[in-house]
Sequence to fold (518 residues):
Amino acid sequence: MKQTDILIIGTGIAGSIAAITAADNGNRVTVLTKTDDIVSGSTSIAQGGIIYKAPDDTPEKLAADIMTAGAGHCWEPAVMQLATLGPKLVEDLLLSRFNVDFDKTDNHLDLTAEGAHSLRRIIHCKDITGRHIIKAIHKTLVEHPNITILTNHIAIDLLTLSHHSKNSVDIYKHPACFGAIVFDANSGATFPIFAHKTILATGGLGQIFLHTTNPREATGDGIALASRAGVRCFNLEYIQFHPTAFYNEHYQQTRFLISESMRGEGGKLIDKNGNEFMQRFHHLGSLAPRDVVARSIQTVLQETSAPCVFLDITAKGEDWLQNRFPEIFTNCLQMGVNISNEPIPVIPAAHYSCGGIGVNLNGRTSFQRLYAVGEISCTGVHGANRLASTSLLEALVWGYTAGNDVCISKEDDDYFPPIYDWVSETEDMDNILMVQDWSSIKNTMWNYVGLFRTNQRLQRAIKMLTELKIEIERFYKRTKLSREIIELRNGIETAIAVTNATIASPVSRGAHYIINNE
Ligand SMILES: Cc1cc2nc3c(=O)[nH]c(=O)nc-3n(C[C@H](O)[C@H](O)[C@H](O)COP(=O)(O)OP(=O)(O)OC[C@H]3O[C@@H](n4cnc5c(N)ncnc54)[C@H](O)[C@@H]3O)c2cc1C
Fold:
């Protein structure tokens, strides 16, 4: 029997910080990632930066910006925790302990601006901030004597008293999680990992949409695991669509991001005729909140019948651009666009889930012994819309508070009931079904649960997705287990959870925009 004190699912910033914090406190920690490299998920491709503090900053000023962006729907205690503890943890952990090499000018941290921030308070490592942060954290993660890392290990379902215990009277107890069922893609084996406490840190869900900036791993697994177990999720209708992902008609899957900080550094949005258009929609122009910019672009696309708009940063020289945005510069060049002398073609794409598994200030969910941290969680910080560069900070803060909270033990923590054996299937996967099912999920979500929602579109979406789920469950039940089939099952579950949350939210707010409401 595999057993650990703390099971953590995900090796992004949230899972890694939780693991190190819990392990520092003497716990035996097991960390899973579904990829063969521990560097995976959105953290490693985060570009713009992480909030620190401006010289004249205060927690109250940061909190005010977050709450304005969140459209009056933020949970103030969570916002204040982020605004007070966040900059301190950046200092203690990222700067002092992990020595992340943030960019400096004249020996001072280089502070940049992003949309809807009232001050320049974001630190960065050129435009590859996430990669620098996670590599520095992983150095400690892999060397920590109390941490075991299992790559290519995919959590299939949470082990819960109500679903998996052979003791029938466990159903009367408070809902609790005692680990997860895991598929080892290296060996093909499936087995339970029993844990005193389990932390979900599985990242985002962008892959359920046709256009997304998220990596392949972002199939919303944590939401699916939680939904199937009956763990409370909320705010899932608030999907943030990033306004500027690189557009290329031949390249449709993950669209690389054109960072918001490019607009912070003076980049202007123009239509196909070269006209600036953002002032028409918002007084902050190109630096308006993301949802406003994304919907404005979509409106301009409809008005001009164009497939994309453009971001013009040609006012900056080639040397400056190559130095400040090396990754974007190179990626665009590989797609045939030299951003120093021509504007960048861009469209909106699903980028961030503001909602998720509901948690308290320490990452505790509605289930005992179960925590959620990072993008998969909903702390209430983002409300109806996320302020740029708050998500890495939120993952850092809640990874830390959850990593400490799991150390408070309770009597029932080592209750591991007998469970039913796993039954393996043998049929080979039908790839055509897989491709078509994903295409149906992604197109339905993009067209009916995307930037502009209507009741009619949402009703159509839920009907199609519910029917598809029945087919996918049948497909899943008879097919030999693989990462692909597990992700497809999670993708449809998460798509339904997002659509149901959207249907239940009749009022437009922040990132959720519903046109008519008959
Ligand atoms: C292109 C891009 C740019 C961004 N730029 C910024 C930025 O500049 N600043 C900012 O603050 N935020 C930014 N964000 C958002 C931010 O990067 C993410 O919200 C944050 O990194 C999420 O961290 P996480 O630890 O929660 O999850 P992730 O980093 O996504 O990690 C998820 C982990 O879970 C694992 N996993 C998932 N499912 C399973 C499963 N079933 N079993 C086992 N393992 C599993 C994955 O393999 C991965 O290791 C950006 C996002 C994107 C996509």
